[in-house]
């Protein structure tokens, strides 16, 4: 059996850089549509799928993903159903799936049990938005013994010596928080984040994937030029799902168009329908 | 972090990576600036000349007679702003100034901490943004007006349940985006390390004063101390100087609607988990989704609790229990009529519990109730209740 860490490493080894890591909240707007979205992401060329296990109090997320979490939770999404969804998807697809969540759903289930069940369902990596280096030990240990990559985050506030400590404990890839603040579409790319990418890459051989604020092919090209191994696209996708809520085919189709545009560098904003704000401020 | 971040197994720093350097900076300030004599001198000046410390310890003759023991109230209701929250707000605002921060943000439920922060911002010259659930903005209009009068901006938190929990979420999000020049002036002994220790230390003045005052008046320590617990800042401030003494300590949570109904009794009804940066008791479902709390008092309407209380619960050093909305309202009317003191509905929970606890005390035994705030803000709720009852 392939471990999650190996599956992620394979994706980085085989894909054309930067890989596109496509995010959606499990159960937003419902389980059948989520499954269709994941299939379409794969068909459209996404290299890794990042699936959100929704939480009631997502403090690292901006309003777009908060609303998606609430839609999913009010539709009955929970840890059991998320594992079922991944199991079903995994029975037909090989693409790596990583899980994004917060500490409490993992603690509530029991850390070891959570990771064992996640691995059994076919989850390859886990990133927990409110578990920094200081708190990661029990999560990382459980991840290791179940073959899951515990993905670490580095932010523009992280000082250099701390980057070294974080990346040395990281597995799979390093999640580079490319903007201060919460998730959400931003115009342009913060030059400080580009510098951070260089600082991280100088300290690790792991692939590095910026996320937070990335939504346009232009930004993907900037990150490609800077040497990013992947880009993580979240709120822009979730915004498509929200905008076309009530039209499942439109949702799936819109997500596919966005991924193709990002993957193949089509003109800006193809299919996204985004009206961006001024540089640096979150949009919703 | 240099200091331990835990109280037993509780506490920690469950926050996004972006906030960790700010917490390290705050921890350093907590270790180096707070104990510094010049800081302490300046804070003490604010507390005495501006806020009105020390607050009295009042022997309540009428209810002592009713209840059959010697009942004292620690009068935080007489502090400027009308509640104990100002102790912490002044301490942290001053600390933020020493740290070179340019802006304060805060969360508020009932508005007491928002008002305290607005006052502290006004007097120290720092601009203040207060996050407040839009449900609370509607039901606490007078406090919203006070905050604005003191120059604060009140920003509606319209996510989730649109109450205190979500105001904290919004404040944390703001802080994550503005962490370089903004200090998050958290209002209770909750949140990631070092906040639970920092806020406790600024609230300890309640207990240290009480200790001196009781010794002066009674020549001995009290037999029992009662305080209400939402996040738990007045309770920990009162309890902490007595932890090593032979004094029975009682924390009173919001029982809300009572058995089977909606509640705010986190330590009594919850289970451990993470919320707002700390591992502590929590009202949650089987999947770890945070449950909605309920209390007639907005200040206790919170599904979490400070991590030090979780430790004290497990060790049984403090006895935690709850009283219902109705018992608290009755206690509010009782204290008003018998002593001419209108307690906040939060503090009324402590009064309600004390009425029952008194039955187990002898006539010469001494009980202190932490009267954490005054009830003017609750007038509409209390009058409506009294009107129905009369």
Characterise this structure.
The complex is a heterodimer of chains A (284) and B (390). Chain A has 284 residues and is an alpha/beta fold. Chain A has a single domain, classed as TIM Barrel (Alpha-Beta Barrel), CATH 3.20.20.70. Helices cover 47% and strands 13% of the residues of chain A. Chain A has twelve helices and nine strands. The longest helix of chain A has 17 residues. Helices cover 44% and strands 19% of the residues of chain B. In chain B, strand 5, helix 5 and strand 6 form a beta-alpha-beta unit. Chain B contains 15 helices and 14 strands. In chain B, strands 3-4-14-9-10-13 form a six-stranded mixed β-sheet, sandwiched between helices. Chain B has a four-stranded antiparallel β-sheet with strand order 1-2-12-11. A four-stranded parallel β-sheet of chain B has the order 7-6-5-8, sandwiched between helices. The radius of gyration of chain B is 19 Å and the shape is globular. Chain B is α/β, with parallel strands linked by helices. The interface between A and B is large, with 43 and 39 residues.
Distance between the termini of chain B: 56 Å
The CATH class of chain A is identified as Alpha Beta
Tally of alpha and pi helices of chain A: 12
Find the CATH superfamily of chain A: Aldolase class I
Number of separate structural domains of chain A: 1
Biggest sheet architecture of chain B: 6 strands, mixed
The H-and-E topology of chain B, N to C, reads as EEHHEHEHEHEHHEHEHEHEHEEHEHHEH
Question: Do you know the CATH topology of chain A?
Answer: TIM Barrel
Low-confidence stretches of chain A: 267-284
Estimated share of beta-strand residues of chain B: 15-25%
Q: What topology, given as strand order, has the largest sheet of chain A? A: 5-4-3-2-1-9
Sheet-strand content of chain A, in percent, reads 5-15%
